[in-house]
Amino acid sequence: MKLCELLPAAGGVLLQGDPRAEVRALCCDSRAVTPGALFVCLPGQHADGHDFAAAAVRAGAVGIVCERPVPGLPPGVPAAQVPHARIALAQLACRLYGDPARRMTMIGVTGTKGKTTVAWLLAAMLAAAGRKAGVLGTNGAQWPGHRVPLPRTTPESCDLQALLRRMADDGCDACVMEVSSLGLQQHRVDGILFDIGIFTNLSPDHIGPGEHADFAEYLACKSELFRRCRVGVVNADDPHAAAVLARRTCRVVRYGVQDPAAWRALPGWQPRRAPGFLGVDFTAVGPAGQALRCRVGMPGRYSVYNALAALAAAGVLDLPHAAMQTGLQTCVVRGRTEVVPLDAPFTVVLDYAHNAAAAQSVLRALRACRPARLVALFGCGGGRSRVRRFGMGEACARLADACIVTEDNSRGEPLDAIWADIRAGMQRGGPGTPCVLIADRRKALYYALDHARTGDIIAVLGKGHETTLQRGAEALPFDEREIIQTYMRKKQA
């Protein structure tokens, strides 16, 4: 598409160069520029894309979109100025890639916890109903025959629209995607009208440098999804639901356990533990009073809520009940209360829980499975809010029988500083809880496996789906499933 055909979508004004330049892609990272790409200069907290415009041109960018003139550009290089680069990036991406979201049923999931699980549960239901669905979020982008890793939950708009175009061109008729608060704040999903927006729950998170200024801003960003969707599927039991919906423009379908809701779970949930399986059985009741007996392969109260969210959205989409039940029972979500297959008399569970609320939910769910001992292995990331560290320490010391504290993604922050905050939290939660400090996460995993007893559940928290470990600026290969399974095979041999 020619630059002159693209610019009107973003209200751009050409400052220099040939408006007939052919644009083949969009990019906002100078390191990822390919020949023929249009580079959009995004101002950021730590770096400004305007400073990398010349590098983008040297890498083959066909032109530059900026908020202010960029000095030093070769005279023949097209440059266009826009009022707001992030908004322009989304507008240009929708235009260049042909608004692919309009060709699919779009479902967006937002909330503090549960986004990934709900997205994958609903995608499994769609697949069971015979539809070809893509899923996009923390665990990457995936659709039949394709898997693409993603650096963030909600990609930048140029990358998002390119992925949606690939899904649509490959025959997908639906896409379920996680919509983060930062994704909404930074206009990454601008131009998408969601058929369904799902709200899971809200608790303080992502508040601090480079994220949200305070909880009010965090809530306001989450609520934006319900001015961008036709139907809102909302957790009626969450205390922040009313505030999230305060300025909605959509129809609302509620789900829950305590308050009246269109979809609800009856009392009498049954936790299930078997070799290689942890889950819960429950009965869901839909809007017409129909009862569905459900089994989901993840334990705990939060898994019932996540299942209800997916069921309510599936109900809006008129999916068959059998497809709903099949999707729930067969779905395995990587890094979300994921049982590692082992030939062992104990159970190892991987979960992405990296704040107090998530750790509490996971550990309470695992406690309900009546382990001989519940052991929590965890650390906390560097360069993030210290509140998470206090909270993780407090929750794990209070709810686990023993703790193994180790590294997480340190991102260059000294481990001693991170551990001091964790220990302060542990003093509040359970000063008498046995604790071992092992700096190397691999060795910490080995220690946990060496000291596991029959009937134990070892909860490995914090990394979940991740396959790298960040030490300083280095990202080391680190797949906890592979590490655990390889070590156990060696022990058994």
From TrEMBL:
The enzyme's E.C. designation: 6.3.2.-
Enzyme class: ligase
Localization: Cytoplasm
Domain Mur ligase N-terminal catalytic span(s) in chain numbering: 23-95
Primary localization: cytoplasm
Binding residues for UDP-N-acetyl-alpha-D-muramoyl-L-alanyl-D-glutamate: 30, 153-154, 180, 186, 188
All residue ranges annotated as the Mur ligase central domain in the record: 109-314
GO biological process: cell division; cell wall organization; peptidoglycan biosynthetic process; regulation of cell shape
Any GO CC annotation of this UniProt entry: cytoplasm
Residues found modified as N6-carboxylysine: 222
Keyword field contains Magnesium: yes
Gene Ontology MF terms: acid-amino acid ligase activity; ATP binding; magnesium ion binding
Coiled coil: none
Mur ligase C-terminal domain segment(s): 335-464
Pathway of action: Cell wall biogenesis; peptidoglycan biosynthesis
Cofactors demanded by this protein: Mg(2+)
Keyword Membrane: no
Modifications the protein undergoes after translation, according to the UniProt entry: Carboxylation is probably crucial for Mg(2+) binding and, consequently, for the gamma-phosphate positioning of ATP.
Residues involved in ATP binding: 111-117
Family under the similarity heading: Belongs to the MurCDEF family. MurE subfamily.
NCBIfam families: murE, PRK00139.1-4
Functional note: Catalyzes the addition of an amino acid to the nucleotide precursor UDP-N-acetylmuramoyl-L-alanyl-D-glutamate (UMAG) in the biosynthesis of bacterial cell-wall peptidoglycan.
Protein name from the UniProt record: UDP-N-acetylmuramyl-tripeptide synthetase
Provenance organism: Candidatus Gemmiger excrementipullorum
Source species taxonomy: Bacteria, Bacillati, Bacillota, Clostridia, Eubacteriales
Gene: murE
